[in-house]
């Protein structure tokens, strides 16, 4: 079956499943393989649960005409996604970066949806499987699709760009994330810049932060760029007004008070405002969209619980985002201030020095109580409270309850530090 024929089948059955526990009735099941499973073995089960057809790459599993055999299921899924992207009239905005991708994606979506029919990456389905699934969620009436791209190695963004073929792109920043896979900060810059490489090579538009020296230098000679700045008047100016504790800003005389904590979220808002302006969303609609957005899923959420005012930022962490979170929490006025921070993953050979640098920073800032959690933080040279595991922290806090007040919780996803909420 050709991709054209498979696409016709998809249009007749326009939903995709890759997990038999989440089968979408009358859709297509793609039998993906992983290190510990063979999707082909689940294809019959998918059909019995309501899938219309199963796409497999092992012909020995075919028992009826409802099985479509291809050479490789993942490659076929990606090719189908690209075909559908070309078939659609939707404009594609892709974004990547070390920090803030998901929040920025959601902000862009709430702004542009004020005027357009949009779709956006669900959650953080931003890899070699998630990007195709996002593209295949584009409907006939979709006008703009916002596609988040994640990577932890070089060449991944290049591959995702070739699949999505974006019309526009934006890089949030270059930070100390996935240093192990990228081979250092310079590798991060090269890897994330693969989105620039695609856009420039295909004469597409680039949105960018003109106050970011790296971005400005890389795009210096490129003409199809649209930038925002707090100071350079040749770009779209947006004014940072402060955080108390939420970010407030002003553009074209419109003041927007957001529900986002931390100055690091200012540029995320700026990107959404810039795109709203470019796509002619009315200024009042841009303002109301930015003001109404509330972060979810452990991303810079402010919660009030049992006498604590909590900044819950436990979705992920790397040295850049951890430093920003600590400095932001330090700038907040009220005391007492307690921080519980967990290990940062995927740092490779730099893990020891990066964790020590965060410990040294935390010790210099104005926190009343500091708790370090995880094997990396436990190995640092410090007299601060440190715990080898979450269970050790839990045991300590049950015997020695935290002082009520302001609390920052931040760590990599694998640390699952949101569990602290259950023991306050």
From TrEMBL:
Gene Ontology annotations of biological process type: cell division; cell wall organization; peptidoglycan biosynthetic process; regulation of cell shape
Cellular component annotations (GO), alphabetically ordered: cytoplasm
Pfam families reported for this sequence: Mur_ligase, Mur_ligase_C, Mur_ligase_M
EC nos: 6.3.2.10
Localization of this protein: Cytoplasm
The UniProt record lists the keyword RNA-binding: no
Pathway in which this enzyme or protein is active: Cell wall biogenesis; peptidoglycan biosynthesis
List of residues binding ATP: 97-103
Top enzyme class: ligase
Major localisation: cytoplasm
Chain ranges of the Mur ligase central domain: 96-275
Keywords on record: ATP-binding, Cell cycle, Cell division, Cell shape, Cell wall biogenesis/degradation, Cytoplasm, Ligase, Nucleotide-binding, Peptidoglycan synthesis
Listed InterPro entries: Mur-like_cat_sf, Mur_ligase_C, Mur_ligase_C_dom_sf, Mur_ligase_cen, Mur_ligase_N, MurCDEF_CellWall_CoF430Synth, MurE/MurF_N, UDP-N-AcMur_synth
Domain named Mur ligase N-terminal catalytic: residues: 16-62
Function (record text): Involved in cell wall formation. Catalyzes the final step in the synthesis of UDP-N-acetylmuramoyl-pentapeptide, the precursor of murein.
Protein's recorded name: UDP-N-acetylmuramoyl-tripeptide--D-alanyl-D-alanine ligase
Organism whose genome encodes this protein: Flagellimonas marinaquae
Organism taxonomic ancestry: Bacteria, Pseudomonadati, Bacteroidota, Flavobacteriia, Flavobacteriales
């Amino acid at each position: 079956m050709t991709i054209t024929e498979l696409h016709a089948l998809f249009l007749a059955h326009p939903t995709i499943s890759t997990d038999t526990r989440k089968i979408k009735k009358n859709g297509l099941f793609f039998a993906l393989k992983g290190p510990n499973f063979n999707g082909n073995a689940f294809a019959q089960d998918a059909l019995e649960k309501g899938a219309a057809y199963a796409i497999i790459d092992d012909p020995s599993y075919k028992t009826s005409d409802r099985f479509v055999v291809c050479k490789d299921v993942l490659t076929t899924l990606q090719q189908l996604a690209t075909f559908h992207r070309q078939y659609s009239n939707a404009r594609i905005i892709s974004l990547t970066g070390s920090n803030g991708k998901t929040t920025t994606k959601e902000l862009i979506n709430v702004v542009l949806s004020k005027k357009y029919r949009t779709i956006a990456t669900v959650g953080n389905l931003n890899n070699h499987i998630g990007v195709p699934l996002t593209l295949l969620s584009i409907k006939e009436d979709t006008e703009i699709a916002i596609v988040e791209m994640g990577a932890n190695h070089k060449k991944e963004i290049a591959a995702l760009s070739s699949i999505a073929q974006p019309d526009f792109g934006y890089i949030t920043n270059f930070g100390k994330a996935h240093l192990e896979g990228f081979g250092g900060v310079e590798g991060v810059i090269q890897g994330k810049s693969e989105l620039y490489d695609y856009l420039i090579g295909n004469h597409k538009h680039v949105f960018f932060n003109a106050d970011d020296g790296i971005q400005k230098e890389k795009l210096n000679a490129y003409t199809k760029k649209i930038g925002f700045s707090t100071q350079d008047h040749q770009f779209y100016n947006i004014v940072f007004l402060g955080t108390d504790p939420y970010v407030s800003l002003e553009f074209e005389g419109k003041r927007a008070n957001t529900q986002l904590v931390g100055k690091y979220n200012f540029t995320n808002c700026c990107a959404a405002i810039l795109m709203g302006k470019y796509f002619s969303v009315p200024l009042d609609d841009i303002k109301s969209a930015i003001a109404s957005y509330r972060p979810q899923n452990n991303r810079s959420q402010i919660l009030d619980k049992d006498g604590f005012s909590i900044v819950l930022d436990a979705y992920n962490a790397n040295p850049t985002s951890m430093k920003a979170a600590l400095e932001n929490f330090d700038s907040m006025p009220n005391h007492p201030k307690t921080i519980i921070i967990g290990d940062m993953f995927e740092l490779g050979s730099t893990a020891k020095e990066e964790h020590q640098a965060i410990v040294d920073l935390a010790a210099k800032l104005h926190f009343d109580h500091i708790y370090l959690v995880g094997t990396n933080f436990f190995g640092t040279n410090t007299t601060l409270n440190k715990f080898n595991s979450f269970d050790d922290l839990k045991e300590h806090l049950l015997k020695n309850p935290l002082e009520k007040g302001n609390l920052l919780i931040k760590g990599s996803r694998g640390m699952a530090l949101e569990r602290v909420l259950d023991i306050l």
